[in-house]
Every structure is written in C-alpha cells, then in structure tokens.
C-alpha cells in the first residue's frame, strides 16, 4: 500500500505540472473556500451515473441550507444515444422542475427574476473558466456520441434556450468538488472530498503557484496567495501502463470487456459499477471448472453485469446462521440453489472484494494527505457515494487502511459522510461565482 501511495503522489504531482496526463488534475476555477455566509436561492442540476437530479437550494448562511429536489431515472439507452438528446432531456427536466417548484402558482417566474444554476457534470472535463467544460472522456458506462471533445456548457445552454427560461448557467462542477465545498461550508476542517460510488474521484484545494501548467493564465497577479480546487479524476490512476496496482485475471477481463479498455484502471478495482461484476466473473470461473452449481442452469448469472454490487453488501451483512439472504438472492435473481458451504464462500469472497476496494481507496486519500502535509495536524475527508454510505464496513476499512499506511498518525485523518455535493455544493459554488463576478464588475465600475 505504501508503494502504491508513493506512485500515486508522483502521478498527482505530474498532473499539476503538465497538461494531458493520465490523471489530469483539472483546475476547476473554484477559488478558495466558502465563507459559510453565502445566501440566496440557487438551482443545481446533477447528471450522475444512475440518475438526473434537479434541486432548488436555499442558502441561509452560517452553514445552513434547505433543499427541494426531484430525481429522474436515466435509462441505458439515454446514456448511449446522441448527446443532443441527452442534454435536451436535462433541459426538459429543469423546465419541468421550475414549473412545479418555483415562481407563481402557474409555474411562471416573476419578471426580472434570474436564477443562477450550478451544473454538476461528474465526468472529466478541461476548463478554461468555471462556466465552461470540454469533456475529455465519458466514464461510468456513458458513451453518448458527439459530446467528447465538446463544451458541455454550450450543449446544455443550447438545450435550455428552447425553453426560454431566465436561468443562467453560472458554474460547471464535478460532484467531488461539490462535496468538498459543501462539506467545508458546514465543517471547515474538511480539506479533501472523495466519491466512492458508481465511479470514484477526489478533490482538494491547491495553491495556484504549485500548478505549473496554468502559469500562462497569470492568476497570481490578482492574488499571490490564491488557491483553486483541483478535480483529480483519480479513477484513471495506473491506466494503460498498469505498473502499480495489483490486478487479478478477473480485473483484466473487466477492463478488456469494458467500453473503455485500458482506461480508468483504479476505478475498475474499487468503484460500485465493477465490484459485482468482479464477483460474477469469479463465480463463472468456478462454474466452468465444475466447482459450483453442478446440474443447474446457470445462464442468468452468465450475463455480464447481472450481479449487482448491492448483492455484495447484502451478503456481507446477512445476520442468519443459514445465510438466508444469500439463499434468496441466488434463488430469486438467478434461479440457483446453494449449499451452506457455497454461501459461506460467497460471503467470504464479497468481504475480500469489498476490503480490497476500501484499502485501495485509502491509498488515494493517503496520497493527497501526504502531498499536502495534512498528517500531523489532521483533517476531515468528506466522502460520498453509495459504496461509502451503504457498503457495510467500507468506512472502517478505509480508516484501517490509513492507519496501516501512516501508523498511529493515520487516526488523524477522519472520513465523514459528505454534504450533498452535487446539489448543495453546486449551489454554493454558483453563489461564490456570482459574488466574485459581481465584485469584479464593481471594481471595473
């Protein structure tokens, strides 16, 4: 683990120095921390791996907020069809939400009212400013054509223009950056934000003087002490070269059969999209060897990605001696009968896969902690995502990993559940950006 952390830290540093690196270390143009006194009504749009979410966030200052939201399910077809249709769907959902929750009884917005919107777009983008983002590559199973290499802000604005709504796209952010900012708004000890869900990522605040690749922007002329949030996109760590992460043959199959072979190497070992598939491949290997389910029809479990990561959570937390939850899972979803010994093996295997994911996740956190020198004084790490919040023991295993890496000082690094980064964080960043622009306009006047 310590060897992985050292390689990880070197990779993060390289991403700050040069553009076009495997781990891109993207400057987000979110400057500095929130004051905690931001206030007002802001819209947030979150395009996640599973759902689309529209939020109205009312910031009240003093770290307080209120949230109204609606979720819309994304189909696999929407993830793969033309990008213009995907953004049209996003705009339709925003328009419908505004009609339902904002303005007068007929859904109209008061004359002169302008709503600032923060767009949480949780895929790697390069940015020249905060309200622009060019998609580097899709992750989390998305493959919508005609989006990679294009400005997603422009695509969304074009879709929104069809509805003639007084909404201004103020900021494009990553959900990890949002989690970092939202959690700091509530708890100023928060220095790192991480996502462990369908995908994985991290964000932290870096001094502008340390980011050599943006020296040409002359940002230090405005503020020599300026800090900027960095969206690491660390799911790509060890991609293509595969020199640092220990991969099994099952990991290699997951990679080679994915829609992005060779890419997102770190993510494919630890993210929720892949853990169930890793376990399914092990089971199928044992079926082929004649070890499991002799004489039974196994075609359902042989379907790729038919074994959900949530099944691992359920198996790990099965409290019964006979492991009745596991009986139900295999019977209901796959039509397979299991012996007690098989069920015990399945639970042990799920624990092994989950523990590895958590300990590798700890390596990523440790790399940022080491790079920033947070170990002695300690810091809070805001963690979000279904893997962190729902997988039994995941957080404890991350903490265990940090202690194994750093020794007793590892206890100074404490993870906690993040505030809603893709909703609240997006709104706070929209508020910070609006305030910064208003101040710049005032200075010019």
UniProtKB/TrEMBL annotation:
Xref: SUPFAM superfamilies: Actin-like ATPase domain
InterPro entries listed in its UniProt record: ATPase_NBD, Hexokinase, Hexokinase_BS, Hexokinase_C, Hexokinase_N
Signal peptide feature range: none
Reaction(s) catalysed (UniProt annotation): a D-hexose + ATP = a D-hexose 6-phosphate + ADP + H(+); D-fructose + ATP = D-fructose 6-phosphate + ADP + H(+)
Keyword annotations of the record: ATP-binding, Glycolysis, Kinase, Nucleotide-binding, Transferase
Domain Hexokinase N-terminal: 3-185
Family per similarity comment: Belongs to the hexokinase family.
Protein name in the entry: Phosphotransferase
Organism, scientific name: Hydnum rufescens UP504
């Amino acid at each position: 683990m310590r060897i992985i952390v050292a390689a990880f830290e070197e990779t993060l540093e390289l991403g700050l120095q040069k553009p076009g690196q495997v781990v891109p270390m993207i400057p987000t143009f979110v400057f500095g921390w929130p004051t905690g006194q931001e206030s007002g009504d802001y819209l947030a749009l979150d395009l996640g791996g599973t759902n689309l979410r529209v939020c109205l966030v009312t910031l009240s200052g003093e770290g307080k907020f209120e949230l109204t939201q609606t979720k819309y399910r994304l189909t696999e077809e929407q993830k793969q069809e033309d990008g213009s249709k995907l953004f049209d769907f996003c705009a339709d959902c925003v328009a419908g939400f505004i009609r339902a929750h904002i303005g007068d009884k007929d859904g109209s917005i008061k004359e002169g009212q302008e709503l600032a919107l923060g767009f949480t777009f949780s895929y790697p983008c390069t940015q020249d400013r905060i309200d622009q983002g060019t998609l580097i590559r899709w992750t989390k199973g998305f493959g919508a054509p005609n989006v990679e290499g294009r400005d997603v802000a422009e695509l969304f604005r074009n879709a929104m223009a069809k509805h003639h709504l007084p909404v201004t796209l103020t900021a494009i952010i990553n959900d990890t950056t949002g989690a970092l900012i939202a959690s700091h708004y509530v708890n100023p000890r928060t220095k790192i934000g991480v996502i462990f869900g369908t995908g994985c990522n991290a964000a932290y605040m870096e001094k502008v003087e340390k980011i050599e690749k943006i020296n040409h922007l002359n940002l230090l002329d405005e503020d020599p002490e300026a800090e900027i949030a960095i969206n690491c996109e660390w799911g790509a760590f060890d991609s293509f070269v595969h020199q640092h992460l220990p991969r099994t043959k099952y990991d290699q199959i997951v990679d080679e059969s994915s829609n992005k072979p060779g890419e997102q190497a770190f993510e494919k070992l630890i993210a929720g999209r892949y853990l169930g598939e890793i376990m399914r491949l092990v089971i199928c290997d044992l079926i082929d060897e004649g070890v499991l389910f002799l004489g039974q029809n196994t075609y359902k479990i042989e379907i790729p990605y038919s074994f959900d990561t949530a099944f691992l959570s359920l198996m790990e937390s099965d409290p019964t001696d006979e492991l009745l939850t596991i009986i139900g899972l295999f019977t209901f979803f796959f039509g397979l009968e299991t012996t007690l010994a098989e069920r015990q093996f399945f639970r042990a295997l799920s624990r092994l896969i989950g523990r590895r994911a958590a300990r590798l996740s700890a390596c990523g956190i440790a790399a940022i902690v080491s790079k920033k020198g947070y170990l002695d004084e300690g810091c809070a790490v805001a963690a979000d995502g279904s893997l962190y919040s729902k997988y039994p023991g995941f957080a404890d295993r991350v903490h265990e990993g940090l202690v194994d890496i750093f020794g007793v000082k590892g206890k100074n690094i404490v993870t906690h559940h993040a505030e809603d980064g893709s909703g609240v964080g997006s709104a706070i960043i929209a508020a910070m950006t609006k305030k910064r622009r208003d101040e710049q306009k005032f200075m010019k006047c």
